[in-house]
Amino acid sequence: MKNFSDLTEQELLALAVSLEEEDNRTYGDFAEALRESYPGTAKVFIGMADEENRHRHRLLNLYRQKFGEHIPLIRRQDVKGFVERKSVWLLRPLGLDKVRAQAELMEAESKRFYVRAARRSSDASIRQLLGDLAAEEKRHEDKAAELESNFVTAEVDKEERQSERRLFLLQIVQPGLAGLMDGSVSTLAPLFAAALATRDSWQTLLVGLAAALGAGISMGFAEALSDNGSLTGRGSPILRGVVCGLMTALGGLGHALPYLIADFWMATTIAACVVVVELAVIALIRNRWMDTPILSATLQVVVGGLLVFGTGVIIGSS
């Protein structure tokens, strides 16, 4: 992957063409998916798709003038700073709440891209076009917001996620949940393997501390290096790395600290109870913030936890 700040003007325009093509296809998919149940909303997205197509033509014309006919294939996944998007067919069934949230995020990301790209361009014509497109994407944000007042029912309105909640989800909840899941689940095997192999609280505690802190450092670096947040609004990579690392360490320490108790079996019983609480908390967070049905979230977390726990028990007992 390449940093956004390292892109040349040619690469910026090529990326812009690719983004407009993707947005055009996405809005067209939204319109088709909503056409039967929400024909008014579908018409809005058809208009937005046409607008993105006009943006693409303007970008293509300028690219040909500056750099010729060949356009290198540069995609969002090739550049650090973009949120990975699921294809529309993976998001079905689509409702107005999902579509509205996705459209708002798309337009906000596009606007940030054009604003930052315009600032980096030294060519007057390229800078002007990118600046104009940034202003037009802002108008698209306003049009997406109009969906709420024109086409959204009261029931959907109650369930709407405000933009602040989505940003909090991107900046804090997602990295924190990833860390908590990794810390709570991945450290089960080494901890309980050491517990059953040694039957010693102190030795088990040392293994648990090493596993939790090591996983915290590893996950923190992985999150910080995965996305610099320059275009996605996900915030500072350092902040996300710290959140992810701390939650990973917390998840591992939760069932390691009971081994401060000298009585091995009492410590093990408490640690097992802590694991149950940790898995329940993860399931509730997934249900609350990730829109995962509570039964599905519970089964996913419990099955994963049992598999890792069972691995530790088998290894520790052998």
Write the layout of secondary structure elements.
Layout: H1 9-34, H2 39-67, H3 88-91, H4 96-120, H5 124-151, H6 154-158, H7 163-186, H8 188-198, H9 201-226, H10 237-254, H11 264-289, H12 294-317
Helix pairs in contact: 1-2, 1-4, 2-5, 4-5, 7-9, 7-10, 7-11, 7-12, 8-9, 8-12, 9-10, 11-12
Description:
- This protein has 2 domains: 4-158, Ferritin, core subunit, four-helix bundle (Ferritin, Up-down Bundle); 163-317, no CATH class.
- Helices cover 77% and strands 0% of the residues.
- It is built from 12 helices and no strands.
- Helix 4 packs antiparallel against helix 5 (124-151), helix 8 runs parallel beside helix 12 (294-317) and helix 11 (264-289) packs antiparallel against helix 12 (294-317).
What is the compact description of this entry?
The chain has 318 residues and is mainly alpha-helical.
Helix vs. strand class: mainly alpha
Q: Work out the radius of gyration.
A: 24 Å
Give the overall shape, derived from the CA principal axes: elongated
Please state the average pLDDT score: 82
What's the level 1 CATH class of the largest domain? Mainly Alpha
Separate helix tally: 12
Order of helices and strands: HHHHHHHHHHHH
Largest sheet properties: none
